[in-house]
Design a protein that fits this description.
The structure is a single chain. This protein is α+β, with helices and mostly antiparallel strands. The chain folds into 2 domains: 113 residues, 2-Layer Sandwich (Beta-Lactamase), CATH 3.30.450.20; 192 residues, Hypothetical protein af1432 (Orthogonal Bundle). The chain is 49% helix and 12% strand. Strand 3 and strand 4 form a beta hairpin. The radius of gyration is 34 Å and the shape is elongated.
């Protein structure tokens, strides 16, 4: 059957020719070498010379010089895997250069076969990834520094509230621990738990706008003072809304005194209009505040605090959140 005129056929290896293939091996941009079954170098291209600084005549017929001291067994295992017929790609390893420096490379290997198909050695292609690894490490370090700075900033904001309101020192940290425990019990993703932790640590930041005399007043607050204190949730939102957190921290802080029946503040939101993070925070905040000492009343204790959220489950507080909170304490959680 005649082939259609003009239809192109794929060339065979024989048609390409060994000289052409050898030119590609020698002139390719990636370092390439081959070793026989005994690990002796039999091919070493120009890119390998450039990468490792050993010239071809220095390595042919010798043990591979790029193996760092102490890594001989690792390379022997890799060679044995290839000699057994295994092909692997993109493995990251560290190798030695002639002047003694260590570089990171990505290596891909395959069995080297004779004309009859027998495995006679291993061929390897390597790419220098040292620069990308350095950049990766620098980026990781930069992220760690940014994370530390972020955590220190959050701690500073939390401390600023405690300075203004010493009677509730540690309140935000305890609320954060409880809120995270509730969120974990509910099976929330780690990233969402992190957002709850951050929001809880600074949920009372708006209190820095409240006069100290009100925050530390030993008796009951007047109606005007109480209304002024209630502005701290919105004030916290105003402080935080311009900060680009990876989570909606400002909204969580603004909503942590909302109640699912709509009687909360500052917006009177109901049910699904309140974000889950704020629902969790409101339960944790209530439990800690009720259990702990305040200038205008003695500590209520944990039993009373849990009774409060059970009594108001479904009106003030989300039932699922309350249930998770009760389980957390049943398992031995302590605010201290």
């Amino acid at each position: 059957m005649q082939q259609k005129k003009g239809k192109k056929q794929r060339m065979t290896a024989e048609q390409i020719g060994l000289k052409t293939l050898w030119s590609l091996v020698q002139g390719g941009p990636l370092a390439l070498f081959a070793v026989d079954q005994d690990g002796l170098i039999i091919v070493w291209n120009r890119a390998a010379e450039k990468m490792f600084l050993w010239e071809e005549y220095e390595v042919i017929g010798k043990i591979n010089p790029i193996i760092p001291t102490g890594q001989e067994e690792v390379f022997q295992q890799l060679r044995n895997r290839a000699l057994s017929g295994e092909i692997y790609t993109g493995m990251e390893i560290s190798v030695l250069r002639k002047e003694g420096s260590i570089i990171d490379v990505s290596i891909s290997t395959a069995p080297l076969r004779s004309d009859d198909g027998a495995i006679v050695g291993v061929i390897a292609v390597l790419k220098d990834i040292s620069q990308s690894k350095r950049m990766e490490n620098e980026l990781r370090e930069s992220l760690h520094k940014s994370q530390r700075l972020f955590e220190e900033t959050i701690q500073a904001l939390s401390t600023a509230v405690e300075v203004r309101d010493p009677y509730t020192a540690g309140h935000q940290r305890r609320v954060a621990r409880l809120a995270c425990a509730i969120a974990t019990e509910m099976g929330l993703p780690e990233d969402q738990v992190k957002s709850i932790n951050v929001a809880a640590l600074i949920h009372d930041i708006g209190k820095i706008s409240i006069p100290v005399e009100i925050l530390s007043k030993p008796g009951q607050l007047s109606e005007i003072e109480h209304e002024l204190l209630r502005t701290h949730a919105q004030a916290g939102y105003e402080i935080l809304k311009g900060i680009e957190f990876p989570w909606p921290i400002a909204q969580i802080v603004r909503q942590h005194h909302e109640r699912i029946d709509g009687c909360g503040y500052p917006m009177g939101l109901k049910c699904d209009k309140i974000c889950l993070e704020a629902k969790i925070l409101s339960v944790a905040d209530t439990v800690e505040a009720t259990a702990s000492y305040r200038p205008y009343r003695p500590a209520g204790g944990i039993e009373k605090a849990l009774e409060v959220i059970k009594t108001r489950k479904g009106t003030y507080y989300d039932p699922e959140v309350v249930a998770a909170c009760l389980v957390v304490f049943k398992r031995g959680f302590s605010l201290d």
